[in-house]
Amino acid sequence: MKAPLTIKDLVNLLYQSREIIEMLFGNKDSINKSEILAREDMTDERLEKLVMYEIIHENDNIIGLDDRILTFIEEFLEIGEVTTSFINDNIQALNENLRYYRIDSNPKFLRNIKRSLKKINSTTSREVMKLHKNIDDTYKNQDNYLIKLQELDKYKRKRDDIINLIKESEQIVSDAQGFFNTIIDPELSSIVLDLRYVLVRNRDYLNEIQSQIIDYINKIQYQAVIYKKIQRLKELKDYEELKYKTDFVDVVAGTKALMFQKRNPLKSRLSLDFLHTDQGYALARKVAVKLDLLRNNTRKPAGKMAAGFDNDNREESASMNIAGLVEKFMQSDSDLFQFVMQYKFPEKVGELSIEKRISLYVGISIDYDAKLKISGKLVKIDYVNEKKQRMKIGYAVIKPAKQKALAEPMPVEPPAPPMEATAQPEPVVVKTKKVRTLTK
Q1: How many domains does the structure of the chain reveal?
Q2: Is residue 51 part of a domain?
Q3: Which DSSP string do the residues of 187-231 spell out, in sequence order?
Q4: How many other CB atoms sit within 10 Å of the CB of residue 21?
Q5: For residue 205, is it within any domain?
Q6: What superkingdom does the record give (predicted)?
């Protein structure tokens, strides 16, 4: 005779057999006894002990978990199969405990009320999710369309049962709301609010499932009609009667569906806007390399400006009157670069470095390009940066746009820059209004 187990003994026994329990729970079809005994952590004595205390059961050398252990794990992890009768049992238990607590305000009945409310919450959600999964599996994996229709019809009736149980649960909670308000228990209030939200959400989800079931049934019926026609065509084809007893060949020949048409390769051209981007340049370069068009290519484009290259000047730009600066430039005869380099800023702005003035030149040329005229000339100058390094920079000569209405004046030497010029201006073709500083 087996000795009675205490809670401590049961917990220890489950812990010592945790790996066997995990393996048996993952293989619910049961495992042969020889596979269990082949494990290093299992002996005949331990196996007999587990069978004696009904942790596992043995039948014809087949080992499986006891149903009570299996049900406990599934309910605790909320992964097991749930039936509408189980939800109904929880509703009846809630009604009973509500009556008992009205008669006798025993904390035991209050705990049972909370437990029933929690179970209704979890079991309803699990049943709805399981129902949706079963409907999808049936429609996608069941080959026989007659069985598929019967299964979907069964799930449709099950969906109606769940809807009725949800309505019944909502009615019970609504009728008992005044009674719940008399009980000062924050946990109970939180459980009731959560249950109300879950019931409303599941009811809406079940309405979507209803539409899904109807759509699946209609598709199956339509597919069944097509399937019968295909079977009939195959039968006629097998008897060599398809061509003579039907107009199948003529119908297929006159079909203009895309799948019956000859495939024509599409030859699309890239837009010029895309070719002007960095991605377009990289793509064009790959094509040129493939066609061996870069043998004499020695000139390379300037590198991409780093993101946030003008972040250091945002504070100064915020205190500057850029619009006023542009208006003064529009009234001058100088080019934009020399104007920015020679301009004396107010004391609150302070003296700007050459790099910051260059950034200001670039920003004005981008933001106010509608008011500016790019003359198509490029000037190169030398300058010394903040790190005392000699650098060479080229800039486009930009004039106010008002000069467009005038006759082209004779070329005039630009004012002597504060830095030494090392090369005469040379004409270039400017393809975009956005100006980029070039350094090397």
Answers
A1: 3
A2: yes
A3: HHHHHHHHHHHHHHHHHHHHHHHHHHHHHHHHHHHHHHHHHHHHH
A4: 20
A5: yes
A6: Bacteria
In a domain, 244, yes or no: no
Domain final position from 174, 201, 228: 228
Buried b (16+ CB within 10 A) or exposed e, 112-131: bbbebbebbbbbbbbbbebb
One-letter amino acid of 309? F
Both structure tokens of 150: 């019967």
Residues 352, 422, single domain; the answer is: yes
How do residues 264-303 score in pLDDT, each as one tens digit?
Answer: 776 777 788 888 888 888 888 888 888 776 655 555 566 6
Rounded to an integer, what distance in angstroms lies between the CA atom of residue 120 and that of residue 124?
6
Predicted TM-score (pTM) of the model is 0.44
Q: Which amino acid is at 138?
A: T
Nearest to 321 by CA among 298, 295, 343: 343
In a domain, 279, yes or no: no
The verdict on 129 and 59 lying in the same domain is no
The whole domain housing 65 covers 7-75
* CA distances in angstroms from 154 to 217, 419, 427, listed in the order given: 12, 89, 83
* Rounded CA separation 290/16 (Å): 68
Q: Do the beta carbons of residue 354 and residue 422 sit within 8 Å?
A: no
Burial 216-253 (b: 16+ CB within 10 A, else e): bbeebeeeeeeeeeeeeeeebeeeeebeeeeeeeeeee
Q: What is the pLDDT of residues 132-181, one digit of tens each?
A: 888 888 888 888 878 888 888 888 998 998 899 889 888 988 888 888 88
Rounded to an integer, what distance in angstroms lies between the CA atom of residue 416 and that of residue 422? 12
Tokens 């978990």 belong to: 65
Task: Tell me which of 181, 197, 228 is where a domain ends.
Answer: 228
Q: How far apart are CA 97 and CA 112, in angstroms?
A: 6
CATH number at residue 14: 1.10.10
Q: Which two three-digit tokens encode residue 65?
A: 């978990």
- Residue 109 amino acid letter: F
